[in-house]
């Protein structure tokens, strides 16, 4: 058993626990975006930062293992300011309409909590994919938390998603490079379940505006009369 203090209050933890795990168990409302307890932590979003006495700078609590005698401060003005700044960077090119349409998404709730407005220059080049019968993709909402990639690989063992390119051009896409329908996806839905923004979503749950419907002129494949119906 290890001993630490959280905002001055004594707590205990098990060896090997991450700091975020202990803080959440202690009912501290620590914001976290790239964390999903079912997969390995990535430490990418920096929303879970806290101050640990003796550390020269804030640490991401999801990647920090608890040590004996730690003194942790979770919500100082400096920490809250840092979280707001990190959130602002993620929101800078995020579609405001998505926030309005689905305020309950975890990322959107955090924007509201920290008073951060989404918008600015959108990711014009980011793709949407409605090829899959159950899962929709709207990558203009992707904040590169990579939870979809990690849960598909580590939990489901399917390796459908991959991070492509670098820097500003970094994006998540099918590992095979084509549409989701051609990716070998087994429709488990784990990626949609973990996504904190709705960039990957269950099409059956999506608001009508996010469901792409397209009328097309077609001949029934099993008939051959050639009516050319609108379907
Ligand atoms: Fe810890 Fe994202 S939740 S860095």
From TrEMBL:
The lineage of its organism: Bacteria, Pseudomonadati, Pseudomonadota, Betaproteobacteria, Burkholderiales. Residues 133-152, 177-206 form the 4Fe-4S ferredoxin-type domain. Residues 1-78 form the 2Fe-2S ferredoxin-type domain. In the C-terminal section; belongs to the prokaryotic molybdopterin-containing oxidoreductase family. This is Formate dehydrogenase subunit alpha. It comes from Rugamonas apoptosis.
């Amino acid at each position: 058993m290890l001993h630490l203090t959280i905002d001055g209050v004594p707590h205990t933890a098990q060896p090997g626990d991450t700091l975020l795990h202990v803080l959440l168990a202690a009912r501290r409302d620590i914001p976290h975006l790239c964390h999903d307890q079912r997969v390995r932590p990535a430490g990418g979003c920096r929303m879970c930062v806290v101050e640990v006495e003796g550390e020269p700078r804030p640490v991401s609590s999801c990647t920090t293992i608890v040590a004996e005698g730690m003194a942790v401060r979770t919500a100082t003005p400096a920490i809250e300011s840092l979280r707001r700044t990190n959130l602002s960077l993620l929101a800078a090119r995020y579609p405001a309409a998505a926030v309005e349409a689905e305020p309950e998404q975890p990322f959107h709730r955090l924007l509201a909590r920290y008073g951060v407005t989404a918008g600015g220059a959108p990711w014009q080049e980011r793709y949407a994919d409605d090829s899959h019968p159950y899962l929709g993709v709207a990558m203009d909402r992707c904040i590169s938390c990579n939870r979809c990639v990690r849960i598909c690989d580590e939990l489901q063992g399917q390796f459908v998603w991959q991070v492509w390119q670098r820097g500003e051009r970094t994006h998540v896409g099918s590992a095979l490079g084509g549409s989701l329908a051609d990716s070998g996806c087994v429709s488990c839905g784990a990626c949609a379940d973990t996504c904190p923004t709705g960039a990957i979503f269950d099409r059956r749950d999506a608001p009508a505006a996010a469901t792409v419907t397209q009328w097309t002129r077609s001949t029934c494949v099993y008939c051959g009369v050639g009516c050319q119906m609108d379907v």
